[in-house]
UniProtKB/TrEMBL annotation:
InterPro entries: BphX. The chain crosses the membrane at residues 7-25, 53-73, 80-105, 111-132. Pfam families: BphX (PF06139). It comes from the Bacteria. This is BphX-like protein. Keywords: Membrane, Transmembrane, Transmembrane helix.
Amino acid sequence: MRFLTWWFRIVGIVNLVLGALWLPFLSAPRLELSIPGWDAPIPGTAYRGFLDYTLLFGLDLLILGVFLIIASFRPEQSRILAWLAITLSVVRGILDDVYMIAAGYPLPSMLAFIVLHLAIIVTGLLALRAAARPGQRRSS
């Protein structure tokens, strides 16, 4: 269970950091990095809508991060949450990154996120597998 415990904690912290970076007061100054060639007026409707969306995305990541850290205290009872985080890394992670690459977003940053998502997926599957082995339960 130790591997799964630490996986929950590390992936939880990663989600907290990424979630915080998408809060509007931190994402607004990085607008040109997020969307190269932004051509809508600042401030304007599109700009405000983008910041509203990033707030929602950031809160989503923050909530997931908090729940993953909480799950680290009871990993044997929280495996379904690991599966959720892994599935989100496939769908909201890799599939979305591939879509973003196809849409013309910068390749290096998208590839970096694909690597991050792959690391979360692979280590999560390994942690779940290790936790399922006989003798891996923590004694109370």
